[in-house]
Write a structure and sequence with these properties.
Layout lengths: L1 H18 L3 H5 L1 E8 L1 E4 L2 E4 L3 E9 L4 E8 L4 E9 L2 E13 L2 E14 L2 E10 L2 E12 L1
Antiparallel strand pairs: 1-4, 1-10, 2-3, 2-10, 4-5, 5-6, 6-7, 7-8, 8-9, 9-10
């Protein structure tokens, strides 16, 4: 009887400790990502080249993370994200993109949902003669 009580107590303690982890701590780590979608560039709709790379989420506090995107074929970008339960919102950050041999300087932002080892984010890019409102960013935890 006493042994059963100890096993049950240890199990409950483990559940409580897991539940006490903050939202950022639960998703912090390194992810592989892929961004794909279409944009309006100079009035024409174009398919953007897929971007792949590594994303790292580093805990700042219980609801804020530093996010670093390191594209395989380009530069790295950083921003902060707010994380609450299974929702993530990226703060606006600046980035560059090349489409049809023309460089564009953009403001980027996004929000999405966290699913266990996967994060799905809808990104928005805005710039002079450039807009994309429904880019898909799929992130898989490494």
């Amino acid at each position: 009887m006493k042994r059963s009580f100890i096993i049950i107590f240890a199990g409950l303690l483990g559940l409580v400790l897991t539940a006490c982890q903050d939202a950022v701590q639960q998703v912090a780590g390194t992810y592989s990502y892929k961004i794909s979608g279409r944009a309006t560039v100079d009035g024409d709709e174009v398919k953007l080249s897929d971007e792949v790379g590594a994303m790292e989420l580093v805990r700042i506090d219980s609801t804020t993370a530093l996010v670093t995107f390191n594209a395989l074929s380009g530069p790295a970008y950083t921003t902060q994200a707010e994380i609450h339960a299974d929702q993530i919102t990226l703060n606006t950050y600046e980035r560059d993109i090349t489409v049809n041999l023309t460089d564009y300087h953009l403001s980027a932002s996004g929000s999405g949902t966290i699913y266990d080892q996967t994060i799905l984010i809808t990104l928005q890019y805005k710039g002079d003669k450039f807009s994309a409102d429904q880019l898909t960013m799929l992130c898989k935890k490494n």
